[in-house]
Structure formats: C-alpha cells, structure tokens
Amino acid sequence: MTKIDSVDLYYLSMPTVENVADGSQDVLLVRVRAADWEGWGECEASPLVSIASLVAPMSHSACQPVLGSVLGQTIDSIDDVRRITALVRANSFDQLQAAHTLSGINIALCDLLGRRYEVPVHELLGVRGASPKTPYASTLFGATPDETRAEAARLAGMGFRAVKFGWMGFGASSLAADVDQLAAAREGLGPDVDLLVDAGMAWVGRPDQARARIPALRDFRVRFIEEPFVAEEFDAYGEFGAAAREAGVAVAGGEGCHNVALALTMMTHADLDYVQIDAGRIGGITEAADVADAALSQGRTFLNHTFTSHLALSASLQPFAGHGAEGLCEYPVNPRPVSYDLTTTHIPVDSDGLVRIPDAPGLGVTPNHRTIATYLQQVEISVQKRILYRTPDLDVVSPADEEIAA
User: Fold this and answer.
1) Are strands 6-13 and 26-34 parallel, antiparallel or unpaired?
2) DSSP one-letter code for 66
3) Residue ranges of the Mandelate racemase/muconate lactonizing enzyme C-terminal domain (predicted)?
C-alpha cells in the first residue's frame, strides 16, 4: 500500500492584481507526493484562505484541518481518491473553504495515479477514447462596445465556432448599454459563430431585470445565458429559464456549486439546460464526474468551467471525456502569464477547430517550475509563534508537521 507523504500548496500571483472578473491573476497550485510518484492540481480559490484551511487548528470534530484527512492515507486506486474526498468532507464539514482546497488535492491525486499507472485520468474514470470537444473562446466584454466588437472579430478570425463574453458591468447598468454590447459582439462575430453570454450573477434578487433582457438575447441569437443569479436562487432560475427557452435561449449555471448535492439540486430545481461545473471548486475530478454522469442521464448538457491555466483545463475536461463528440467546452483565451505559463505544455485548438483531451499519463500537462518560481508568494502561517505552514521547497519533499496531521 502506498501512503501519501506530502501535500504542498504554492501561492502564485501576478505582481499587481486588478479589481476585474479575471481569476487567472493568481493561482493556488497543489503538489501531492506518495513514494516515487507525484501529482499536480489547481484550486479555483483564494490562495491564502485555502492554505489556511489546510492547516487551521481544529475547532471541533467537524471543523478539522484538511491536511489531517489526507496525509498518510493510502493512495492506490481511484476508489482511494473518492474515499479521501469523503473523509475530508466529513472531517472539515464546517470549514467552508475546505471544498476549494480539497478540489486541488483531488485533482493532484488523480494526476498522481495516472502518472503512476501510465494512463490518462479519464481512463481511471472508466473512459477509453476521449471525445473531442468544440471549444468556445471565453473572454470578458470590452470596456466599450467598440472593444467588444474588435475582440469578437479577432476570435472569429482565429476560427472559433463559439465565443462567450461576460462580466465587465454587463447587466449592472441599463438595458440599452447591454443591448449595445450584444449588438457589438454579434456584429464582430458575424452570423455563423455562436454567441454565449455570462451574466456574472448580475441579477441577484432582480429576476425582472433578467427577464427584461430576453428579447435582446433572442434578437442577437445568444445560444445560452450563463449565471444570471447565484446558484441557490432555484426559483429565479426556473422561472427565467422557462421564459428564455420560449425565446430560443438556453440557460447555463453551476460553477458556484461546491459539492455534488448542491449541483444535483440546482440542476433539477433550477432546470438547467447546461450544467457548468468547475473541477477546482466542486471537490475535484471525481466529484465533477458524478455530476457529469447525472447530467447525461437527465438529458442535460455538461460543461466545464475554466478560466485559468491549462492544468485546470485538462482537469475540467476529464469528467466528461466520454460524452458525445464535439460538445462544447470552455476554453480560456486571455489568461494572465502566471496562469498561461504555469505549464510547459498546452492543450491546443487543432486545425479542425476541436480540442482533444490529452492521452498522456495523468493530466497530460507538466508544471513549469520556472514560472512557479517567478510568481511564487512566500507564505508563513503561525499561531502563538508555532509555525503551522511555510511555503515548501519546489524540489524537496517538505517534512509534514505531525502535530497538524494529528
């Protein structure tokens, strides 16, 4: 039996982080080592908060440090990943950030097993022969309609069959301003490229404002509108979705779900057309795969949520690798250097306009140690002068703090 020897977290960041809806400006990278193998993962998380959740002293039996449920555990199969995931959920139930931290660990464990057995992660999930996906370029609206129009034309010229614009104030100001942005996006894309829109939860508590945009979404042939509300607003989703579908516009949501139960509840009660899950937030690859299987069984379309690195992209594609060929997948096109340069290899859009999930062992991408060193933020967490966490060395397994693990 192989035991987990170390769980190392690395906080990377751009020198300046801007107040915009761009999660690629910093990274929480996870390395897990067991005997002669290692695996890498990434959390969709606030890095420092998640590092704290790894080592925070126990508050009570259901609020324990994540590390204590992982270190020393047996890791020989995908069933062990699921078992460890369930253990973290139980022991850190009241530590809300634990789901984000767990996600990166789960991804790293899957990567480790794939490298150990020399198979891609989706084969560990029972899928042989991953289906190619149709990438949609995922980007932000421009600050002005002119900027949106230019970016749409650029992405259409690159051969993308679908483009999603989002955030940057869309939905937060006037209906006329939103119409101008949609018109610019459609003009730049031309008639043949699918237009998708991410509302970025703009209409929380304001379903009437969401419904007011439906005619414009119809007129500019928006394929789907994503996240009009927060994940828990099931009734608002359901009512809005029914009206949107009558106009030929589908509804997507789910990236805010941090566990399978919430995702399944949202999927059915919000009546989603597209179920969009972030493997770096929901609890990892195995958790996302459970949602993907449920979505498929209900006749809904599963999508990845990815706006950061190609390590995160590979992880997010594994859960629905066996779904129908040429289904959509989110593809980040403007990540910051700390995210894009995080790996030495990338997942390209092929000449036929499709993305193929790596068939190399594990996630099929390799972290770039030079990039990690360039953007690494040194972290030390202590309580009463007792050091709970210090950024580990990149190349040497850091000794575990046995007191924390206990």
Assistant:
1) antiparallel
2) G
3) 145-247
